[in-house]
Amino acid sequence: IELAADAAAAGRPLDHAWSRVVGGGHAADGLRASWLDALHTAAGECGFASVRVDALFAEDLQESRVRNGRPVYAFQYLDDLLDRLLIQNVRPFLVLDAKSPDDPASPALVEAFLRHCEERYTQAEVRRWRLQIGAEPDSGFYARTAAAAKRVDAQLKVGSPAFSRTGAEALPAFLGQAHGLGAPLDFVAVCAVPYADAPADLLRQDLQAAGRAVRAGPYPRAEIEAVGWSSSDAAVDYTRDSLPEGAWILKSNLEAAGLADAVAYESFTDAGGSAALFHGGPGLITYPGVVKPAFH
Question: How far is 69 from 101, CA to CA, in rounded Å?
Fold first, then answer.
């Protein structure tokens, strides 16, 4: 191996996009002691500023009932999660999805939740969060729900569902449809999920493709956030517990430098999966709390 560097060449700052957000899995996992212990380690030593969580409105986290013909919501379990994130100086990156995209009550639920958050955590705090609207590319659901978020506060940051390379042609279409519906959009989420015969520089290529689509589309100033990023899409893959995983993460982040505002590895912990010490889970830290090579 031969390495060469030109000391006289102009340099540029290395943007630490990888430490702005990290994946955290389902919101319900965030109520577990093992998840919170792992977050304390990951945020404290890796400097992660935000954690991305999904499935916020699962039945075991959010309750609703009808009183006098109007829905009444209870968010106490989500409050527990958000309180614990903010105590550790970690901000939420929330995936606001619905049980069904066709459910007409979903935008109302999102609006009620965000109003509750601003009342509990202050408007200034919630403006610093990221709100990914939807898990699937449904422009109608996105437009309705993003509009509901902006009714709460026009300065809240809303973004698209995550697009992978295999669905790259869907991103320009989605952006055009969302714009045609008058939907606001502050960021685009990109999910660099490996697939058969994927290139070694998958993250870079996915972000480059997304950047071209954004610059050529109706939201040219939208930020790009890489989410759900990993070396494997399998539930169990023992390479994620190995030494090469750490080197691959370093290589991929350097290749993608400057292409995204955040690059979120999925996930910081195996908590929520097997309790085995090493079982090929997606996390940087095992369920019992042992850090993997990827952590470093």
Answer: 22
